[in-house]
Known about the structure:
About 45% of the residues lie in helices and about 15% in strands. It is of the alpha/beta class and about 270 residues long. The protein folds into two domains: about 5-215, 2-enoyl-CoA Hydratase, Chain A, domain 1 (Alpha-Beta Complex); about 220-265, no CATH class. Strand 1 and strand 2 form a beta hairpin. The termini are far apart.
Amino acid sequence: MDCTANRSVDAIEPTATDAVDYGLDGDVATVTLTRPDRLNAVTKELYAGVLGALERSSTDGARVVVLQGDGRAFCVGADLKDHGERERSAAEKREYAWTAQHACRAIQTHERPVIAKVQGYAIGGGAEMALSADLIVTAEDAEMRFPEAGIGTYVGGGVTYRLPDRVGTATAKRLLLTAASVGGEEAAEIGLVDEVAPADELNDAVDDLAEEIAGNAPIPVAFAKEQLNRRPSDPELALTAEVDALLTCMETDDWQEGVDAFAEDREPIFEGR
């Protein structure tokens, strides 16, 4: 493997693009893949648009990010029609592959929780982006699949470490080696997704989850995501990180608000400072 090709997330230029739409409603940002005529198949421009939208959500006060697809699918993965229209150079292939990796890693490491709302299909690159989210809510009739072994390509987006974390190594091997489809209910049963809802209740389920998270203090939520992602092998490092985070939280206005709200038997109002 050419390790010199590895670059930081900042090396990929986040761009505004017609392939991705961004919106903010209160504390919840929504990043929408907007290629419904292609079932939101991924392109380099779509990945760059996701990066740009995530960057924007970091600066406009969002406490939760919802990642979704427009139309009948979340995302069906690589746009094979686009791939087949012309031959790409080795440099172009590398650029595409790393743009995909950086987009998924940006979802994983975003300071705010990211919820993937999956309807229709989440296949290949689409499943990789969904799996990069902190929480996945899927419709009962949705389908997730990692088809790479069946079409001569390979997974990306951190699937080799994200998928075993969710479903265990044995089930991860089955899903990757067979390229089998997984429906919404089975996905919930094996731990691939966090929640499954009837298709006509999916929006409400995601809204409820996003609002529940957004109502909590954003500083400890950010610490929790960061430290759960890091998971140091040495327990002493984890204990130290927890104490450092706790002491930081105790210096915030939100900590005092939490104490006061408990004493006054009311719901706290957190400001993120």
